[in-house]
Every structure is written in C-alpha cells, then in structure tokens.
C-alpha cells in the first residue's frame, strides 16, 4: 500500500534510528495525533502554500507512542520495540530490539573468523547520530552504535540496516553512507530538543 510505504519512509527519514524513552511519555492519544499528522504530511501542499512554508511539529512522545501502539505491522520481521530520543541540533538517538540470529544465518560464512558466527538472539541495538536534511535530501551521520553495550562497528551496523530495510524496490536496503530523498515533498526536518518540525 502506497500510504503505508510513505509512512514507513517518513519514519526512517525522521529518525533513521531508534532509542529509549520512559513509558510515561507514551499514550494511545499521542499515537492517534501522530497518525493524523502523518496523514496531513502525506497530502500535497495546497496551491496557495509555497514549498518550505508548511510546517508540521512532531514530538518525541507522539513518535514513540506511534511506535508502541501502531507501528508493528510496518516494522520488518525481527525488529521490535523501537523507541527514539530527539536530542536536539539534529542529533537523534535510538534503540530497537533486533533478531541478530536471522541476519547471522543469512550473512555469516560459518568461519570462526566471521563476526556473524558469534552474534545471535534478540538484543537491543543502540544508535546515535545526526540527521542532516536540506532541499529534499537527507543524510545520517553516525556517531556511535552498540549491541547490549558492546561497540558495534559501522560495517556490521550497515549489514543490519541493509538486511532489515531491503525491499523489492531497494533490494540492497538503505545505505548509511548515502544521501536519501525525503518523502512527501519534505524539504527538511528541523530536529530540536524533544521534537522535530517537518518542513514542506
């Protein structure tokens, strides 16, 4: 479904990654608010509104509420409990529980020297970075990543992202080192503390 793909694309564009937040900031009401905002963002700008003039604020609580109550059908199999912290000045941090065993079976060579031979089970993956967006294009600048507190090299993180973001249209999945087009004619995403503003 096009709208479902657009929503998922927008989520990845907004945060690209996922991180912890207290349950006190999560509610069904906020999830509904975020769903309504996604619907508005997906609509084209009215003729009277010029590009870059339409601004939709999205809070950390709304995003995490949507993840908690409505995102499950859109998440890749093997990824669960996504949460995000919008730190500010473009920086976001995130966490998701990821099934490493599925990736290891697909990617691993079976060699004792292959790091995938030692990874398995469902574990929390944490990522921190800066989301740069301008003129309808985004790029994620990775600062750090870990699995259950152990540093995760960028190469292995890329393997995870590629595995879980692949699709028929993009069989290689999302690449961390490449720019991506923002969906829904979004011009940029201003990442502040605890909230982001989608500019269209």
Keywords:
globular; three-stranded antiparallel sheet; alpha+beta; 200 residues; 29% helix
What would the principal axes of the Cα set say about the shape?
globular
β-strand number:
9
What count of structural domains?
A: 1
Q: State the order of secondary-structure elements, H for helix, E for strand.
A: HHEHEEHEEEHEEE
Tell me the Rg in angstroms. Answer: 17 Å
State the distance separating the first and last CA atoms. Answer: 22 Å
Helicity level, as a percent range?
25-40%
The secondary structure category is alpha+beta
Indicate the mean pLDDT.
Answer: 84
Strand content: 25-35%
Low-confidence stretches: 15-24
Sheet with most strands = 6 strands, antiparallel
Q: Name the assembly state.
A: single chain
Q: Supply the number of helical segments.
A: 5
Architecture overview:
By secondary structure, the chain is an alpha+beta fold. The protein has one domain. It has helices at residues 2-14, 28-42, 60-69, 100-107, 154-165; strands at residues 55-59, 79-88, 91-99, 122-134, 137-147, 150-151, 180-181, 188-191, 195-199. Strands 2, 3, 4, 5, 6 and 7 form a six-stranded antiparallel beta sheet that branches. It has a three-stranded antiparallel beta sheet with strand order 1-9-8. Strand 5 and strand 6 form a beta hairpin. The protein is globular, with a radius of gyration of 17 Å. 32% of the residues are buried.
Secondary structure topology:
Layout: H1 2-14, H2 28-42, E1 55-59, H3 60-69, E2 79-88, E3 91-99, H4 100-107, E4 122-134, E5 137-147, E6 150-151, H5 154-165, E7 180-181, E8 188-191, E9 195-199
Antiparallel strand pairs: 1-9, 2-3, 3-4, 4-5, 5-6, 5-7, 8-9
């Amino acid at each position: 479904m096009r709208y479902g793909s657009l929503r998922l694309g927008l989520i990845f564009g907004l945060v690209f990654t996922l991180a912890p937040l207290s349950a006190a900031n999560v509610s069904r009401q906020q999830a509904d608010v975020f769903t309504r905002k996604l619907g508005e963002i997906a609509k084209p700008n009215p003729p009277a509104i010029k590009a870059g003039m339409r601004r939709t604020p999205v809070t950390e609580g709304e995003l995490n509420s949507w993840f908690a109550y409505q995102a499950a059908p859109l998440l890749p199999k093997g990824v669960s409990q996504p949460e995000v912290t919008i730190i500010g000045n473009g920086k976001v941090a995130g966490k998701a529980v990821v099934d490493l065993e599925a990736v290891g079976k697909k990617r691993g060579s079976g060699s004792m020297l292959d790091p995938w031979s030692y990874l398995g089970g469902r574990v929390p993956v944490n990522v921190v970075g800066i989301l740069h967006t301008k003129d309808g294009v985004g790029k994620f600048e990775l600062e750090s990543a870990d699995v259950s507190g152990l540093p995760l090299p960028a190469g292995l993180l890329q393997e995870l992202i590629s595995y879980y973001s692949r699709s028929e249209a993009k069989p290689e999945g999302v690449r961390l080192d490449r720019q991506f087009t923002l969906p829904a004619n979004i011009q940029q995403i201003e990442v502040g503390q605890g909230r982001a503003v989608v500019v269209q």
